[in-house]
Amino acid sequence: MIKRARDLYTQIDERYPTCVLIFRFLLSGGTSASTDLVLLYLFTDIFGIWYLTSAVAAFILAFGVSFTLMKFWTFGDHSQEGLHMQLGIYFLVAIINLALNTLLVYLFVEWAGLYYLFAQIVAGALIAIESFFVYQRFIFRKTSTV
Fold first, then answer.
1. Cα–Cα distances in Å, from 54 out to 38, 50, 58, 106?
2. Residue 40 lies in a domain
3. Is 60 part of any domain?
4. Domain count, the chain
């Protein structure tokens, strides 16, 4: 049964590689976003930390989950060559996204009156779209061997 599932996945991957890439991106991003949301909730509602401070801390902790899943599973980049450069650029993008995320959450909560968790979901979705293209085109792009 597992072999059949693996064979089916391989066939789908070969036939629809872009769809599989997007699926992996969404699953990896969803895992990272879930980590972020759970931590945001714990920090804010359980530990009583201000929601913006919580958002920053949760975002930073979810960074490790995100980089690992994106590099090795989503984009299938198992090379160790340039790992430090990738990590540095990924971190720079994460810091930019963190600032953007914090601004969006603030605007959605304070100006639009959204519940902070819903605001985080909306901000995260917007950032995910931008991130996919940055990761694919600049950080984990496949280099030609010709």
1. 11, 6, 6, 12
2. yes
3. yes
4. 1
Structural domain of 93: 26-139
* 23 or 3, which is more confident: 23
**pLDDT tens for each residue of 13-37:** 889 888 899 999 999 989 998 999 9
Per-residue pLDDT for 111 more than 90? Answer: yes
88-to-37, 43, 91, 93, 94 alpha-carbon distances in Å: 24, 27, 5, 9, 10
Of the listed ranges 35-39, 104-108, 137-141, the least confidently predicted one is 137-141
Structure token digits, residue 35: 């980590």
Q: How many CB atoms lie within 10 A of CB 49?
A: 17
Query: Would you state the structure tokens that stand for residue 83, as one six-digit string?
Result: 């790992």
CB-CB contact of 18 with 98 (8 Å): no
| Long-range contacts, 34-37 (Cβ 8 Å, 24+) | 35/61, 35/62, 35/65, 36/61, 36/62, 36/120, 36/124, 37/117, 37/120, 37/121
Residues 6+ apart with CB under 8 A from 123: 100, 101, 104, 105, 108
Q: What is d(CA 116, CA 95) in angstroms, rounded to the nearest whole number?
A: 20
